[in-house]
Amino acid sequence: MDVPPAPDAEQLRGILSGDARDLAPQLLGAVLRHESRDGAVAVRLTEVEAYMGPEDSLHPDPGSHTYRGPTARNAPMFGPPGHLYVYFTYGMHHCTNIVCGPAGAASALLLRAGEVVEGVELARLRRPTSKHRSDLASGPARLAKALGLTTADSGRDALAPPFALVLPPGPAGDVSSGPRVGVSGAGGSEEYAWRFWLTGDPTVSRYKPAVQRPRKHRPAPAPGTARFHQR
DNA sequence: CACCAGATGTGCT
DNA sequence: GCACATCTGGTGT
User: Which NCBIfam families does this UniProt record tie to the protein (predicted)?
Assistant: First the structure.
């Protein structure tokens, strides 16, 4: 029985140059591996979310970090596919995306959850608070922590050492979809149901709707007052 | 299950 | 300057 050869890194990059929303189901079941000085950890992805860029005029994505254009932080999202976009949030967490789409088009898949399939001991050391093996990478910041990723890894190529990405040979299982987690405003609505997960997988993070923030009151400048910059 | 403190980079004003 | 954040873990009901 001939098995089609696994795509090499550049073929994989070609695949990843597609639309993140179409790629999401293919990435479910894929394995991302990171080898560090401390050892290797690999995660089989079970939950991802697509984020698009401002250039998608049909469906500009108000939930995306790129909605208001390029900045120093989101620059990797505008770069070539197959690279990592890692950002820091809530004062103590990192989240990891794999960049999709051709260079110049900002889109990515946020890695929300997975199953640690290699380096469970190291992942446990990195995540001492996890009580069960299924908790090790069950959430975007948990997944980044288990893989040992920080903003220092943002922009690095996920398809070259010390990283590796392997797609599943075929569909990994039934895929469900729904609104994205933690995205406030319209970007978190059913209209942007760009969260995808393997139906019934125990490592998928528990759904939590975005916290509804009462629009913070921004005092209007009193009439007659002017603002000017220090210099 | 609900609620909430934590702690700081980032981008808008 | 300051509000917000693609979240997590702990506590209490």
Answer: 3mg (TIGR00567), PRK00802.1-3 (NF002003)
